[in-house]
Prior knowledge:
heterodimer, A: alpha/beta, 13 strands, 28% helix
Amino acid sequence: MGEVLVIDYGMGNILSVLSALRYLGATPEVSCDPDAVSRAHLLVLPGVGSFRRAMESLRASGLDQAIHRAVNDRESRLLGICLGMQLLGTFGTEDGETEGLGLVDQRVDAFTPSELAGLKTPHIGFSSVTAAPESKLFAGLPADSDFYFVHSYRMPSPIPDTVVSCSHHGVSFAAAVEKDHVFGAQFHPEKSQTNGLIVLRNFLNL
Amino acid sequence: MPRKRLIFTLLHDNGNFMLSRNFRLQRVGNATWLEKNYNFAEIAFAIDELIVLDVTRGERDFPAFCACLERVTRGCFAPIAAGGGIRNVEQAKELLRSGADKIVVNSALHQDEPLIQRLAEDFGRQCVVASADLKREASGEFRLWIENGSKVVEGSAREALARIERLPIGELYLNSIDRDGTGRGYDLAMLELLPPELPVPVILAGGAGNHLHIAEGLQIPKVDAVATAHLLNFVGNGLENARHRLTEMKFDLATWLKRDCLTAQ
């Protein structure tokens, strides 16, 4: 299990991601340095907060380019968690309209009132995810497993050239995406008990 | 629609974990005691969420609370909420840096609304858990109490809860001072005081003594989660057993693989 770099760009608490990675025997490093990010083989992009603020923060520090260099030039493996998965998309509408990293060909919008039909938002709690049959992240887990979500925006499914595992909150949405060596989880694997730890371990061991 | 949740609440007072009965505290043990006698790593895998509250009466040692929070949450891979005496954004940030995902606020809901607005702006409203401690008057009417149950809020509990609903909160933790620590079951009458169409999840707390009490709470549609803070009623693998029984009773709780699946490759 190699070293993994957790990108710290000031969006949310990364402590629990670090302790989950350590629990699995990895030795995570934390960095906001674009050079370190572009050199890393394994990257985790966490995040809680607004899409616009997160992209502004990534651009201001040059981390967006560093992530592109790592993923496109070096074929580094990347896992975006929660907001970090949404940032992989092309476009987000949270807190104004903002371009994303564009690594996954889908936009990110809020759950609409008609989709929710009275369900509470944000979508908070453990919900079932149906793993795509070709998924690598969910290897070793039952086809339907529970994961912990906290979000008001979602990436719709299906997505071109992407393996999508779905969950449901009024409407079906992408709970996890896998495209070559780019991965994303809308849920928090570090907050999803053993199920989430297995997803993280799968990412580390691919 | 997410599944219902079983929450464990730890009450902290100056380095110790406490048993509370009608908000009177009794010391049980410190973090080392908790880790040793409670097999905390196992408990953490039997719950959907952990809440850690600093209920220190008198002067609080905030850095010590943060250190304790960091210690008990290290092996907990579930969402964690923390609070108790939060008076400013900096303290909330410190709790988030010490392992919390959400901040529990109680007195500030009635004494410092701008703080609640700031917390929601900085961390999102999903990060703000509003805690309400209710107690019945001799007349049977409910009132809402703050500052560890030492000060009553003007007006009826229904009015106070309606004011809380208008604040940018993500969840409501509804606790009964009368049932707290008694093991007599939840006070379900509190639920009738909630505003209709409350848009946030409700956590019911205070009084659970066994898995049947927990079942009583879970079967109510407007209850999204149930909590217990009773360190002794669920000692050992009590919570794990309760969870197992509730799953057998077909309650819609999350399931996850057993811990030994992590060691087996």
